[in-house]
Each structure stands twice: as structure tokens, then as C-alpha cells.
Amino acid sequence: MHVIAGTASTSLAERISRELGNVPFGLPFLKRFPDGELYVRIGGQLSGEDVVLVQSTRNDQDLLELLLLEDAVRQSGARRLIVVVPYFGYARQDQVFFPGEPASAQALAQHIALEADAVVSVDLHSGHTLKAFTKPAFEASGIPAIARLLRQRPVDLLVSPDKGGTDRARRMGQLLDRPWVALEKHRIDSEHVELELPNSVPIALEGKHVVIVDDVISTGGTIVEAARLLAKQRVGAITASCTHGLFLRDAFERIKAVTDEIFSTDTLANPAEKASVAPDIAQIVKRHLADSPLG
Ligand code: R5P
User: Same CATH fold, 143-275 and 2-141+277-291?
Assistant: First the structure.
């Protein structure tokens, strides 16, 4: 087996190769042609091998690189190709909201799946995107990775910034044996939200260590508002945590100013990347390869 890293996921890919038993790990050669087109080339003897290709798709460039790398793996005669997309971009446009729009998440999932034998992603924005991959597709969760890190700290309450994240906070609460609560969120625009505490909160907040649990931090608007609301309740410490840390523009600094710690998993490279999803992804890859007969 070989693990190949796209440029968006080099560290995580290396960790996955270690979790898979120190299998060979490769970084492709990339360059731009004079007209700006991307050139990729993978090394190593891949003929007859199982290949795990790891690339998050933060932007269009990452996506193009992934599609070219998938074809390069196929051209090299690999036996099975497992494509790992730790952060799957375009996930929020998961349906046609207005006439004339694409269902971007489904469209890109189909293209990524074309050359793959199986796909693995982490905390997809919407559960039904998994079905769009048209090949066996698996979703890992970032929650166990964050929980492994939080086990070493005194945590009193898990907080989801919105009702949509209720299951995440509940699951983290179960793993840490702590109570959880979901805030009421009203989105004003793409960067601003209003948050309120629900009528009932399971513990008195004053002096407590609360951990905000989210799937993605983009502009930071949600976490900053959640931290402000909790600070008004005179909590003792606030940790912000997420699976996917995009931290657009000055989001990291703005969150740092209102929290005590920031944790994200390593689905995206960022300064808060302290919990690794490599063991969770490697487990899915191993199980799938063991379960799927060779064609
Ligand atoms: C919302 O549905 C998500 O769970 C996140 O809370 C949201 O995407 C975070 O975005 P931002 O950091 O821009 O507030």
C-alpha cells in the first residue's frame, strides 16, 4: 500500500501512512506550465498496489490537483484507489436553492468518485452528500479526535453554537461524560449571527470551563458571538473547537482574543491544528480494504 499526499494535506497524509503501518508515503512533483496550467507527477512503483490519495479541497486549485492526481494514480496501474478528502469544499451548496444554480456538492462528489474505488471524508456539511459519491463512501468524525485531546483537561460543559450541531455536542458530551447544550442561532448575513442561551442550561455557568464544539470555523463570526455570550455568563474558561479550521482572514486572531484555547483537527493546516483524525481515517481505510473483494 502507498499513501500519496496532495499539497493541501501533506501532514495529515503522512500521519495516515504511519497509522496504516508506516506504509510508503509520497509527495508528488508539481509545477506550472508557462500558461499557468498545472503539471503533476507521482513517483514510486504503484502498479498492482493499493493507493490512498489524500487531498482536502479548500479551493478550485486543490480540486484540480486532486482530479489530476487521481488520474496519475490510475495511469500508474494501481490496484485500488481510496481517495481521502478530509475537508470537502463546496459542501454548503448541497442543493439547488434558486433556479439556475448547480447542486455543487453533488456535482463535485460525482467527479471525485469517477476514478476512485472508495472515498473517505470527514464531517461533511450534509449527510446526504455521502450518497452522491457513486462509489462506497465513508464519513469519519472529528469529534473523537477532539475528545482525545479534551480528556486531558477539566471540561464542565460542551456547547454547540446552533441546533444543527446538537448531535456533535451530545456525542462529545457522551465521550467525555459531561453535559451539553445547544445555543439558539439566528444568521444575519454570511459573517454575522445572533446567539441566545436556551431556556434551560444543564449547569450553572459561572466559573465553569465550557468548550464550544463546531464542525467548521470560517469567518469566525459564530464562535466569537458564542464566546461573547458565554463570557457574559461569567464562565471561567472558554475553549473553541472545530473539525475544519478554515480561519478566513483574521478569524484566528479574533477568536483568540475572546477564548482561552482553540483546537481544530488536521483536516486543514492551521495554527490550531492540535487533534489528528489520522487514526479514524486509517481505521476506515483498513476496514474497507479488508471487506472489499478485489475485482
Ligand atoms: C453552521 O452551520 C456551521 O456549523 C458553522 O457554525 C458555521 O459555518 C461557521 O461559520 P463562521 O465561522 O463563518 O461563523
Answer: yes
Closest-CA residue, ligand 1 atom 10, reads 218
Those residues whose C-beta lies under 8 Å from the C-beta of residue 10, and which sit 6 or more positions away, are 27
Pocket residue to mutate for ligand 1, from 93, 167, 195, 216, most atoms within 8 A of Cβ? 216
Is domain 143-275 given the CATH code 3.40.50.300 in the classification?
no
Residue 235 pLDDT more than 90?
yes
Single pTM value for the model = 0.95
Pocket test for ligand 1, best of 143, 186, 194, 217 (most atoms within 8 A of CB): 217
- What is the Cα–Cα distance from 19 to 54, expressed in whole angstroms? 14
Q: Is the CB of 272 under 6 A from ligand 1?
A: no
Contact (Cβ atoms closer than 8 angstroms) between residue 125 and residue 94? yes
The pLDDT tens digits for 85-132 are 999 999 999 999 999 999 999 999 999 999 999 999 999 988 889 999
Q: Which residue ranges make up each domain of the chain?
A: 2-141+277-291, 143-275
For residue 10, which of 55, 49, 50 has the smallest C-alpha distance? 55
Angstrom distance (rounded) from CA 63 to CA 249: 21
Task: Tell me the average pLDDT across 141-169.
Answer: 95
The question of whether 185 is a catalytic residue gets the answer: yes
How do residues 168-182 score in pLDDT, each as one tens digit? Answer: 999 999 999 999 999
Q: What percent of the chain has pLDDT over 70?
A: 99
Q: What would the DSSP string read from start to end of 128-144? A: GGGGGGSS-EEEE-SHH
Which residue of the set 185, 256, 274, 286 is catalytic? 185
Please give the number of the atom of ligand 1 that sits closest to the Cα of 161. Answer: 6
The residue count for the chain: 295
Ligand 1 proximity of 150 Cβ (cutoff 6 Å): no
Domain 2-141+277-291 listed as CATH 3.40.50.720: no
